[in-house]
Design goal:
Length: 154
């Protein structure tokens, strides 16, 4: 039976893939199996593999085992997280921000804002009856107070 692969590590990530590499097992090795839990994700003959078709911002733990005609070695693990995570720091780093001032009567138009924006900041104004051309900002009576929204991956 081959020896356990050594130094399994994440060597690269994208939004949809995680690449792994390791040092060769001792003994006679036909190839390597890469598992996620009990599911076989890849069979390779080299000391690296890429698992693709993943979802952005998800964590995965893989076990690499060497195999030959007599069976599989013990496993060595590595954990990685795909990229594409949206962090709480988004307001200062977002690349697609929409900020608008709208009159209260145009609220329904927000449904037509494209989903490609990372952050949408909107304020609603009322005409100020005491100042021609001026506006005031009021919270509707009975309306919930605004709260911070949780960013979601795009």
């Amino acid at each position: 039976m081959p020896g356990t692969p050594g130094n399994v590590q994440v060597s690269g990530v994208t939004n949809t893939s995680i690449s792994l590499s390791w040092t060769a097992s001792s003994g006679t090795v036909t190839g390597y199996h890469v598992y996620e839990g009990a599911t076989l994700k890849a069979t390779v003959t080299a000391t690296s593999a890429t698992v693709s078709g993943l979802t952005a911002c998800t964590s995965h733990t893989y076990t690499v085992k060497a195999y030959n005609g007599t069976g599989e070695s013990g496993g060595a693990n590595a954990t990685g997280t795909t990229s594409g995570c949206v962090t709480a720091a988004c307001p200062s780093t977002c690349s697609r921000v929409l900020a608008e001032l709208r009159q209260r009567r145009h609220r329904a138009e927000l449904a037509s804002v494209p989903t490609t924006y990372d952050l949408i900041a909107v304020a609603f104004a009322d005409a100020d009856p005491n100042n021609a051309g001026g506006v005031t900002f009021n919270v509707d009576s009975g309306s919930p107070r605004p709260s911070a929204a949780t960013p979601t991956p795009s």
